[in-house]
Amino acid sequence: MSYSYDAPSRRYLRSMPWGPHILANGTRVATDNVLVIRAGQRFAKLYAGKGHEEPVHDIIKASGTFVYAHGGKYVTGTWSKGAVETLFELVLDDGSPLQMAPGQTFVELPRLDAKVRIS
After folding, report:
1. pLDDT tens digit sequence for 30-89
2. Terminus-to-terminus CA distance in the chain, angstroms?
3. Distance CA 119, CA 110 (A)
4. What is the DSSP letter of 50?
5. Which of 73, 70, 76 is nearest to 11 (CA)?
6. Where are the alpha helices (DSSP H) in 27-82?
């Protein structure tokens, strides 16, 4: 996935590997904020029986890095999460907690070996 900041709308426009992400009604998919959480990923069957393996993200009792984008700018930091019922902790590189802006936020969970480029 990729996102490009559209200054006139103050939103991030989402693209898929084959081009702009467009809904069936012709609307371009857009969001106010993007949070990219780097986490381990593996493929496993989610239930016994037929079906194929699905990506499972290793975010329980884990930690890693993140990138948060809002308003055409971004910050980086580290995340951690304990048990299932606990909240994520998002801390900026300077040690302060991430204060996310109001609005719609898309969360991406790329594989650890995925290339994440910010430009």
Report:
1. 999 999 999 999 998 888 878 889 889 999 999 999 999 999 999 999 999 999 999 999
2. 14
3. 17
4. S
5. 70
6. none
In angstroms, the CA 117 to CA 100 distance is: 21
Tokens for 107, please give them: 């969360």
- In a 13 Å sphere around the CA of 68, the CA atoms on its Cβ side amount to 17
Nearest to 66 by CA among 98, 43, 44: 98
Angstrom distance (rounded) from CA 42 to CA 64: 16
Report d(CA 100, CA 53) in Å as an integer. Answer: 33
Identity of the residue numbered 45:
K
Structure tokens at 56: 């499972």
